[in-house]
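Students often ask why inverse folding is considered easier than folding. One informal answer: many sequences map to the same fold, so there is more than one right answer. In these notes we will look at a single instance of the problem. The structure comes first.
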């Protein structure tokens, strides 16, 4: 019986694994450059954890299961609730601010499409316990610092930044009640993903006043914060949220990433827990789904039974990112090695095959990578194999060994060959 992989999942053969590692290595390096420490949690949690605050979209996309004890569990669709749970558990022992990163494997029962799968990896950076604008700026900076380090430029990616606090103040000023806002956010988040008619129709299901709908439509198109006052009166809350955003843009400017950043009122975010600054990075052309998304979530730890604790963070998936890196020519299949070796042992005389095994074991014990052929073939073929394995050096076991107990060491980059004493060879290795 032929069994195929489940739709929306990926098999990582060595070349795909090299791509995954290339991406994850960049994420780790960027996290460490900004001082984040790595953490991880379990792959499944109690189902209820995602029902509390993630929002309907995530709940509808959960892979859930019941264990033999009748407990309802879910495979993690995001790691933010796990982070909140873990921080709450040790809240008094953890030095603040908490700056953690993680690269969890996540599952969402989404309809697989370009850049969205049912299983993916997501880089998370989060800062907990720091309410100043510096924490918001650091999260956006670190995301952009990574993207910039891959070679993506402001003409390739843009960080669209807004504020739920500002949006909430404006919507309330329009006369909308506070309790309608949690219903409205996931709809507003769909603005760029669906045709305007469908968007307007969805708005019409929660707002009866067509005047308000038309103001919201205009508001969602704003890219200049100064124009808001022309649409809606700014109350004190809106003014404070606007001032916070301006501070944020100033800090991002000082950090040298303002070319990547722009204000965009249509960024609302689908998840329920965001309370302040929200942002998403998109490809500049706007062809793809978001590269990453995040924001401030000041109530999540409290909602999970912990103390009131401010937090801000973001998640970046590997799928859209990989598409973008390929489209921009930054990632090419043949540029990533699936294997590199310090040494390859070529056996020029088949009677020396057993010596190759002993030598390889000694080289590995000395801490270097080494391979030897299982079957002895023509020397030229073995040297080709050494090049394919990206061996730095090839040791040739041949007549020099039989006659003078010498190994011929070939530097694969320079092509130089030197004969060295076989008996003392392992002792010289630490000096390389
Ligand atoms: P999110 O917007 O649900 O936020 O996901 C963030 C990113 O994860 C997306 O922009 C995308 O790159 C990737 N992603 C999401 N769903 C999929 C999928 N089905 N396939 C491939 N990639 C996907 C969160 O998850 C928040 N927990 C992020 C966060 C951390 N906020 C604060 N801290």
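Output (designed amino acids):
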């Amino acid at each position: 019986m032929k069994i195929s992989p489940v739709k929306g999942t990926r098999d990582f053969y060595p070349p795909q694994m090299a791509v995954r590692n290339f991406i994850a290595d960049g994420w780790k390096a960027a996290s460490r450059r900004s001082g984040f420490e790595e953490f991880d949690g379990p792959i499944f949690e109690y189902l209820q954890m995602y029902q509390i605050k993630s929002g309907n979209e995530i709940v509808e996309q959960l892979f859930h299961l019941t264990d033999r004890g009748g407990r309802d569990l879910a495979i993690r669709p995001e790691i933010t609730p796990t982070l909140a749970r873990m921080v709450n558990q040790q809240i008094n022992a953890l030095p603040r601010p908490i700056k953690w990163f993680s690269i969890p494997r996540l599952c969402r029962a989404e309809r697989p499409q370009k850049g969205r799968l049912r299983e993916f990896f997501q880089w998370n950076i989060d800062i907990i316990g720091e309410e100043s604008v510096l924490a918001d700026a650091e999260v956006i900076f670190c995301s952009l610092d990574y993207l910039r380090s891959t070679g993506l430029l402001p003409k390739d990616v843009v960080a669209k930044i807004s504020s739920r606090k500002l949006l909430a103040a404006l919507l309330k000023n329009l006369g909308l009640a506070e309790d309608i806002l949690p219903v409205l956010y996931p709809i507003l988040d769909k603005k760029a993903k669906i045709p305007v008619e469908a968007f307007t129709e969805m708005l019409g299901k929660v707002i009866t006043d067509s005047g308000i709908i038309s103001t919201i439509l205009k508001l969602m198109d704003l890219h200049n914060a100064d124009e808001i006052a022309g649409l809606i009166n700014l109350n004190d809350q809106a003014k404070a949220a606007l001032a916070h955003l301006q501070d944020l843009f100033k800090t991002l400017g000082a950090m040298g990433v303002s070319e990547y950043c722009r204000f965009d009122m249509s960024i609302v975010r689908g998840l329920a827990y965001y309370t302040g600054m929200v942002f998403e990075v998109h490809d500049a052309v706007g062809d793809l789904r978001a590269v990453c998304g995040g924001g401030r979530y000041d109530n999540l730890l409290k909602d999970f039974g912990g103390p009131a604790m401010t937090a801000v963070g973001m998640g970046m998936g590997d799928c859209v990112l990989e598409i973008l890196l390929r489209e921009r020519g930054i990632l090419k299949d043949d540029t990533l090695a699936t294997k590199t070796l310090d040494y390859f042992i070529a056996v020029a005389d088949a009677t020396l095959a057993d010596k190759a095994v002993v030598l390889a074991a000694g080289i590995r014990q000395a801490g270097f990578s080494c391979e030897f052929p299982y079957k002895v073939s023509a020397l030229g073929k073995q040297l080709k194999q050494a090049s394919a394995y990206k061996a730095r050096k090839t040791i040739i076991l041949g007549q020099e060994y039989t006659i003078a107990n010498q190994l011929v060491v070939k530097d694969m980059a320079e092509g130089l060959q030197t004969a060295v004493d076989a008996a003392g060879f392992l002792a010289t290795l630490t000096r390389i």
